[in-house]
Design goal:
The chain is mainly alpha-helical and about 250 residues long. About 80% of the residues lie in helices and about 0% in strands. The relative contact order is 0.14.
Amino acid sequence: MSASRGFLRATLAVARREARAWLDSGIAAATTVAALLLANSIFMNEFFVAGRVDMAPFFAGLPLLLAAFLPAQSMRLWAEERRTRTFEVLVTLPLSGGELVLGKFLAALFAHALFLAGTLPIPIMLCVLGGPDLGLIASGYLAALLLGALLLAAGELLSALSPDQVVAFVLAALVAAALVLSGDERLVAVLDGLAPRLGAGTWIYETLSALPHYQELAAGVLSLPALAYFVGLTALCLALCALVIRRLRT
């Protein structure tokens, strides 16, 4: 029990350090505000055109925004430490690779949660205007949180593998785009058309893509496979990242 408590205490200490660094970073805060304004403006445009008292259009367009925004947030997690040469100091602390990786991840997830919290005026406005399905809205936010966690974990892994922030951003953006765009039915049809017998597009859609699982959760279907996909793949990325950090510190 004491070991678990010590692990949690150390992880939260790292998370607090990273959260303070994020709050002190003007670029990070400006990026978050810009993404928030873009997300809200996209919804408002869609709302006034369609006149629907629900957030389905908002959650439908959110994955592409997160695929572009979250790599910019995760690229600095480890690449910045190596660029400023604080990595050597950090890894000499009496902290395990798992504590360091999980602490940084929780801080990034906290920033993502703040971004989602910034969109809460939308459901508040919908409640004032009509009677939206609050359960469906809650499941949409859960889907957005889980998708964000996966993209951040993948971005942290790629940041640990690269000493350069630009390279880390490009790689994370490519992975995020692949996870999201591979669920687009038009792309699936194109890939299947190139090799009908292989059915590569369908296989990628059913096996690797994050979009169908996200859409399932956003539609209010809390299926175990969708939850297992996000939790399992996020945990795998964090475990691999901890392994990379352990090897870099030796």
